[in-house]
Amino acid sequence: MKRLCASVLTSAIVLTSQMSWAADPDLAALEQAAKKEGEVNSVGMPDSWANWKDTWQDLQSKYGLKHLDTDMSSAQEIAKFDAEKGNATADIGDVGAAFGPIAVQKGVTQPYKPSTWEQVPGWAKDKDGHWALAYTGTIAFIINKQQVKEIPHSWADLLKGTYQVTIGDVGTASQAASGVLAATYAMGGNEKNLKPGLEFFGKLAKAGRLSLSNPVIASLEKGEVQVGVVWDFNGLNYRDQIDKTRFEVLIPSDGSITSGYTTIINKFAKHPNAASWRVNTSSPTPVRSTWHAAMLARSVRNT
After folding, report:
1. In the CATH scheme, what architecture does the domain 138-258 have?
2. 25-83: per-residue pLDDT in tens?
3. Same fold: 39-136+259-302 with 138-258
4. How far apart are CA 93 and CA 71, in angstroms?
5. CB neighbours of residue 19 within 10 Å
């Protein structure tokens, strides 16, 4: 997957934009500037995703930063930044690896290099600091054992069942698009030849077994998802929050992919210092360690 990420990064178009951070680069000054702003508003970073809940709680309790999130896909986040421009309602977003370069190309990001910048491998970041992958996951299945009696352990197994397979909106969501790519690799294709993966999901659709709704915690809890294609950190998080005995989470034995996510800071952010302080907590502090302790999302600096 590093080769895939590298191919994405090398194709990125890097633009220059003005920075509006605290003049003093010292972290103490940045922290004080963030506290003065008092809030940070996000898109695509809900409590149920990658254990963001504990991160936001820590930012509130330790630094007094209030938080509000509107959940949306990677593509929708970038479109929102671009549409609102100077009337920005969001300071930061969390997008899939392939969408970082797209956000830069659209001219909607501000660069910021956190204190851990040098620890992030070159393949996982924009050289000017517009984005850097913070955590990674591997595409997995989350299976409702109450509704699916024959547990699928591979993509090939999925074709044998009669249950619904829920993947999400492939056109806008990084998780869904990555699910298609994972199936593509399992079927013998790659990022330059998606035909095997598209044919795989075409078979499910023809059988009336494919759902393009998002496999989120609410739909899982209601029993609306029989088998969901999700990042492993989401699957484990959803399982643990709902009922550990009700769901099984596994990585398909015949192939998967690992990819990452990056926080992008809105070029037009109303709270740029609070946003950059949030990015800086990507270091192994008590804030980000909430992910590590839960064994959900893996820091890209461990790869």
Report:
1. 3-Layer(aba) Sandwich (3.40)
2. 588 999 999 999 999 999 999 988 877 888 899 999 999 999 999 999 999 999 999 99
3. yes
4. 10
5. 14
Alpha carbon distance 15, 37 (integer Å): 27
Query: How far, in Å, CA of 188 to CA of 105, rounded?
Result: 31
Tokens of 143: 């299976």
Res 301: pLDDT: 53
Q: Is the distance from CB of 115 to CB of 281 less than 8 angstroms? A: no
In this prediction, residue 234 carries a pLDDT of 92
CATH numeric code, 39-136+259-302? 3.40.190.10
Distance of alpha carbon 289 from alpha carbon 81, whole angstroms: 29
Q: Token pair of 8, please?
A: 């994405």
Q: Measured between alpha carbons, how far apart are the two ends of the chain, in Å? A: 11
Listed in sequence order, the DSSP H helices in the chain are 2-10, 27-37, 52-63, 74-84, 99-106, 155-160, 174-186, 195-206, 217-221, 232-242, 272-280, 289-294
Of the candidates 100, 111, 129, 142, which has an alpha carbon nearest to the alpha carbon of residue 230?
142
Residue 53: predicted pLDDT: 86
Q: Would you state the pLDDT for residue 48?
A: 82
Q: For the chain, give every domain's residue range.
A: 39-136+259-302, 138-258
Q: How far apart are CA 76 and CA 172, in angstroms?
A: 7
Q: Are 294 and 237 in contact (CB under 8 A)?
A: yes
Closest CA to 158 of 193, 188, 137, 187: 187
pTM, entire model: 0.78
Residue ranges in the chain modelled with pLDDT below 70: 1-25, 282-303
Local structure of residue 297 (DSSP, 8 states): S
